[in-house]
Design a protein that fits this description.
Blueprint (H helix, E strand, L loop, with lengths): L3 H16 L9 H9 L6 H6 L1 H8 L8 H13 L6 H28 L13 H46 L5 H17 L5 H20 L5 H24 L6 H17 L5 H52 L5 H19 L6 H50 L5 H17 L5 H48 L6 H17 L5 H21 L4 H17 L5 H29 L5 H36 L1
Length: 629
């Protein structure tokens, strides 16, 4: 008859088979609890089915320092007969891409350190990555093949265990041969222990039948009691030691390691034979209590791990969305691309600081992030390729302007060439950008050609400026002499005024900035002398004109008419100029000091023009009078 703890074990074992290995983080809390508590003679086969996973988790994995070394290991696995463990395969993937992205980051840093711009950095295909993917595909096929072989092995083991049950069942039906069959019975038990995985769906039923006939062999026949009691004591000692070992695991700092050690204890507990009926519940309760402590710690550990992974998934999803949002922007300038590139690099750096996401989403979220980044850098490469072509066109345009500037650099036609070079400089500014090194060289050559001309021109103009300064000095000296004329001596004053006026007219150009100032000083003193000498310049010109009319008339029959026509034409011009000035004065803003000065100057010019108009009218009257005579 099956004991109560064995019934509980069988029930728990069935649930564990349905839910899978408790060591997997994806199993929920209740499943972990069930799997941990499925001890004694029921948990074994499920643990055996996942024995490779337990060994993988407990075995330290090699840390690789290069992608080449990892690819070599992957090729070794794909070419060998061994079946790689899932833990090692996952470890190889993690190590490879960790090194892969570290290398990519170092390449990018080196590119920037050598003077490259972030927007010009490009990501190229990696042959080692392609080789790694190809070998991993082969390994995947091998693992699938190994899985099918494992399933076939489980079917074979099922047949072997069913055969053992049939043999024990036959022994139970022949009680008279119990003593004779005892050693064979022990051999069959050992064979049972040595046969490991069987199909999960058959495990509970198989174990129930086996336990039934083993108990019948012990309990229904009172044969060889001394051997049986010896077995019970030995089994009790072993299970007590297993309880003590399980209780010590509560102090193990490594929760995962404690859990895997507990699985091994479960396997040993299960393979250990029964104890006396009176002690079975007690020893099982002790082992179960110790298991519960380890299980709860393990359960809590994976709850925290899952929570952290979910949090990491949220963070990584947000980073994916940030990259995708950047892709939605209108990136239409090198500075814009540079700014966006810095943002992408910062996001990539932040990604590296975030741990793993849940196993089912970890690869997917990484592929999403990588695809977005690759798309960004592909678009960037296309943009800068187009920009490179534009740069080449701009460079050709600037070379053409440079050649024109060189052709003009030795010209001595100062005014015309100056205008041409200034026009070239303006056109230069309208040409778009070129690469910095080429652009700097072209600009330096262009400036050198322009400077060559302007330096030569300035050297010539420097002499002219010195002459202008001398002329300015001479004019101020003449103004001082005019100021010294005594108007009381009328005749002498007139002669001196005429002499100095003639001398002033012979003096050449003065500096442009000083022209108006010296002109104003000169005419102020002349006007003052004219008033003092009671000289009406206009009247004198009209008088002179009248005196010369007879000479004009002697030139020919139409000479006076021609002169009158010329004066009439000049009169119309003066009237138009007066009208233009008066219109412009109406539009000027005289709120500032400079504006008011300009208005006053224009008014003086208008008055001068009006005086000229009156003078011309007097001349026309003189011609009319002469014609009448």
């Amino acid at each position: 008859m099956i004991d109560s703890q064995d019934a509980l074990l069988n029930t728990n074992m069935e649930e564990a088979k349905q839910h899978g290995n408790a060591a997997e983080p994806s199993v929920n809390n209740e499943q972990v609890e069930v799997a941990i508590l499925s001890t004694d003679e029921t948990i074994g086969d499920k643990v055996e089915a996942h024995e490779s996973k337990t060994e993988d988790a407990a075995t330290p994995l090699k840390n690789y320092t290069s992608k080449k070394e990892i690819v070599a290991r992957v090729k070794e696995i794909s070419a060998s007969e061994e079946t790689p463990s899932k833990a090692e395969i996952d470890h190889l993937k993690t190590q490879f891409y960790k090194i892969h992205f570290t290398e990519r980051e170092e390449q990018q840093k080196a590119f920037l350190a050598n003077g490259g711009k972030p927007e010009e950095y490009q990501v190229f295909p990696d042959e080692e990555e392609e080789s790694f993917k190809a070998e991993m595909a082969i390994i995947k096929e091998k693992r699938q093949k190994a899985f099918l072989e494992q399933e076939a092995l489980k079917q074979d083991n099922l047949k072997k265990k069913e055969a053992i049950i049939e043999k024990i069942k036959a022994m139970v039906t022949t009680p008279e041969e119990a003593d004779k069959n005892f050693q064979e019975f022990k051999t069959l038990q050992q064979e049972w222990k040595n046969i490991k995985p069987v199909p999960a769906e058959k495990n509970n039923e198989l174990w129930s039948n086996y336990q039934l006939y083993v108990e019948q062999f012990y309990d229904l026949f009172n044969l060889n009691r001394e051997a049986r009691e010896y077995d019970f004591k030995k089994n009790l000692k072993k299970k007590t030691e297993l309880c003590e070992a399980a209780e010590k695991l509560a102090d193990e700092t490594d929760v995962v390691s404690a859990f895997h050690q507990l699985q091994e204890l479960h396997s040993e507990y299960r393979e250990t034979g029964p104890v006396e009926k009176e002690l079975r519940e007690e020893i099982w309760a002790r082992f179960k209590a110790a298991s519960s402590v380890v299980n709860k710690r393990h359960q809590q550990h994976f709850e925290e791990l899952r929570a952290k992974e979910e949090e990491n998934l949220v963070k990584k999803t947000a980073l994916c969305e940030q990259v995708e949002a950047i892709l939605e922007r209108e990136l239409n300038g090198s500075s814009v691309w540079e700014k966006a590139t810095k943002e992408i690099i910062a996001i990539q750096q932040e990604w590296k600081t975030i741990g793993f996401a849940p196993q089912k989403m970890n690869v997917k979220i990484f592929e999403r992030f990588r695809a977005a980044c690759d798309k960004f850098f592909a678009r960037k490469a296309t943009f800068f390729q187009t920009l490179k072509e534009t740069f080449a066109e701009n460079a050709e345009k600037k070379r053409a302007l440079l050649e024109k500037a060189k052709e003009l650099s030795n010209s001595t036609d100062w005014n015309a060439t100056s205008n041409k070079l200034i026009a070239l400089q303006r056109e230069w500014k309208t040409v778009g950008m070129v690469p910095k090194k080429i652009g700097d060289q072209l600009w330096n050559d262009f400036v050198e050609a322009c400077n060559h001309f302007f330096e030569a021109r300035n050297a010539v103009q420097a002499e002219s400026k010195m002459e202008e300064q001398d002329n300015l000095k001479k004019k101020y000296e003449i103004i001082e002499q005019l100021q010294a004329i005594d108007p009381s001596d009328d005749e002498r004053a007139r002669e001196e005024l005429q002499r100095l006026s003639d001398e002033y007219a012979k003096v050449g150009h003065v500096p442009y900035k000083e022209k108006d100032k010296v002109y104003q000083a000169y005419y102020e003193v002349k006007d003052k002398l004219h008033k003092a000498l009671n000289i009406n310049a206009s009247k004198r010109r009209v008088d002179n004109f009248k005196n010369n009319l007879k000479k004009v008339a002697s030139r020919g029959e139409n000479a006076l008419d021609n002169e009158r026509g010329r004066l009439m034409h000049r009169l119309d011009q003066l009237k138009q100029e007066i009208n233009t000035y008066e219109n412009n004065i109406g539009f000027l803003n005289i709120s500032s000091k400079k504006g008011n000065s300009l208005v006053e100057d224009m008014k003086r010019r208008v008055q001068k023009l009006k005086d000229d108009v009156e003078e011309i009218k007097l001349k026309i009257k003189a011609i009319d009078a002469e014609n009448k005579d």
